[in-house]
Amino acid sequence: MKITAKVIYNGSTVLDVKDVCFELGKKYALIGPNGSGKSTFLKCIAGLIRFDGETEGFDGAVYMPQNSFAFSMSTLSNVALAGKNKASINKEKAKRLLKKLEIGHLAKKNAVSLSGGEKQRMALARVLLDNHLVILLDEPTASCDAKSSLICERVIDEYVNESKAALIFATHSIKQAKRLADEFLLFEEGKITLRGKTGELDSLKNGFVECMIK
Ligand code: ADP
């Protein structure tokens, strides 16, 4: 899979990347300061915004935005509605995922009243309900507490290992990048300034990386 993309807003270039390649079965963490272009990059791959350039091989990618949205219906229905199978199968799969994410007890609750972290886990269940070959997650555990984050990571990891999908996610945590990803891509001012194995992150001499949540 490959992407070349340039995005300009109000005359300033917020993303400018060329021939960025990803492989199926691998996990990639996007890191970098606020406003460095990580979300814009994910949105380009997901086909959600216009950009100059091209993508190759990202068809059928599924995308989880930074802010989880909830429809005014049960948590279970919020997840099941994303399924491509018949309703009963979607519901069964949704139930199993909610349990794995340890929010099974909230299945009947109206999703609008969930807490931020609960809503985020529901949104994660929604994107992981069916099989997709490219999973795009924008700070998937930003609203979760430490324990819930680990639960989410375990479920994401299991999904990607089983489906051999490519996982591309934005994070502000070095530990999360190391636990979940094989490689990191460092964004600075709309460009990818560094790319490497996540194991190298701890020893990286970079002002931003050295300040990341450890
Ligand atoms: P990150 O995800 O790394 O925090 P973003 O990709 O969200 O960064 O944003 C990159 C830059 O693009 C920021 O300066 C942001 O303000 C700007 N930006 C993002 N979306 C828009 C938009 N719809 N209109 C104008 N500027 C935008």
Q: What would you note in describing this structure?
A:
With about 210 residues, this protein is an alpha/beta fold. It is built from seven helices and nine strands, in the order E-E-E-H-E-E-H-H-H-E-H-E-H-E-E-H. The longest helix has 18 residues, at about 145-165. The radius of gyration is 17 Å and the shape is globular. The two termini are about 30 Å apart. The model has no long low-confidence stretch (mean pLDDT about 95). Bound molecules: adenosine-5'-diphosphate. Adenosine-5'-diphosphate binds near residues 9, 14, 35 and 37.
Features:
single chain; 214 residues; alpha/beta; six-stranded mixed beta sheet; three-stranded antiparallel beta sheet; 7 helices; 33% helix; binds adenosine-5'-diphosphate
Describe the strand arrangement of the main beta sheet, using strand numbers: 5-6-7-3-8-9
Gross morphology: globular
Bound molecules: adenosine-5'-diphosphate
Number of strands: 9
Q: What is the helix/strand order? A: EEEHEEHHHEHEHEEH
| Whole-number mean pLDDT | 95
Uncertain runs are none
**How widely separated are the two ends?**
30 Å
Helix content: 25-40%
> What structural class do the secondary elements suggest?
alpha/beta
As a percent range, the share of strand residues is 25-35%
Tally of helical runs: 7
Cα Rg: 17 Å
In this structure, how is the largest beta sheet organized? 6 strands, mixed
